[in-house]
Design brief:
The chain is mainly beta. It has one domain. Helix content is 7%, strand content 56%. The protein contains one helix and five strands, in the order E-E-E-E-E-H. The protein has a five-stranded antiparallel β-sheet with strand order 3-2-1-4-5, with no helix packed on it. The chain starts with a strand and ends with a helix.
């Protein structure tokens, strides 16, 4: 599913912890609270969404945040994963900043 994301930041982790190897990138994304909860929640929250392995972190080097992009996402039993992010060319984003 295509959607628009407001990316606040990007984190990566690649290491072994207690014998288990981890290698991931997470995008810190601002997401509005669901409208069905308007009596108890208003505004936005942040979510840390999976975006592949730690190599994807390098795609965001030199960019200004927050960054609004189109993205392909997939819903699963744990929530939502990011499949692809349509990043503007780096030179274009720097001119707009």
């Amino acid at each position: 599913m295509k959607t628009q994301l407001n990316i606040l930041g990007v984190r990566k982790f690649k290491d072994t912890v207690e014998g288990t190897e981890y290698d991931f990138t997470k995008l810190v994304v601002s997401m509005p609270f669901p409208s069905k909860n308007k009596d108890t929640q208003i505004g936005s929250d942040t979510q840390h969404l999976n975006y592949g392995d730690s190599k994807n972190f390098d795609l965001f080097a030199g960019r200004k945040f927050p960054l609004i992009v189109a993205a392909e996402v997939e819903f699963n039993s744990k929530g939502m994963d990011i499949i692809e992010v349509d990043l503007p060319p780096l030179a274009t984003q720097q001119k707009a900043a």
